[in-house]
Design a protein that fits this description.
Oligomer: single chain
Strand content: 15-25%
Structural class: alpha/beta
Number of strands: 4
Length: about 130
């Protein structure tokens, strides 16, 4: 890879109940995080809504997860750049792809903005299971 080219990272959320992506380098399962689906006022919203993201990301489990994940992401960016990789695809999954995986994907996206990468983010299953309210 030409050193002037930025590593392209494709980051997306998905729901395991709709199938695990096959075109990715890494899949992280975040179903261990607190599930906003079981909170009546949060269920119709997505992980892009502040109150849903806070519910997921302010949990002790999420804080510990990111303490481990962020150094790993930095390491992977460095190693993939050194190896000359052009693209790394990372998928973050929860049950339905509307709450936890979306919140985590958005948080990872914000973290990755500090690195010299070309970042693409999308949420594969965010609009499944009904109307989206943010």
């Amino acid at each position: 890879m030409d050193r002037s080219e930025k590593l392209r990272i494709v980051l997306y959320s998905f729901g395991f109940k709709y199938g695990t992506p096959v075109d990715v380098n890494l899949v992280w399962d975040v179903r261990f995080l607190p599930n906003p689906y079981w909170v009546e006022g949060l269920r119709p919203k997505t992980g892009k809504a502040k109150e849903v993201a806070d519910y997921v990301l302010q949990s002790a489990e999420a804080k510990s997860f990111f303490l481990h994940l962020e150094p790993l992401l930095q390491f992977l960016i460095e190693q993939n750049n050194t190896a000359g990789k052009k693209t790394v695809r990372i998928a973050i999954g929860c049950t339905g792809g509307r709450h936890r995986s979306v919140a985590v994907t958005e948080r990872i996206s914000a973290f990755l903005l500090q690195f010299p990468v070309e970042l693409s983010v999308f949420h594969r299953d965010i609009e499944r299971d009904g109307e989206v309210v943010d």
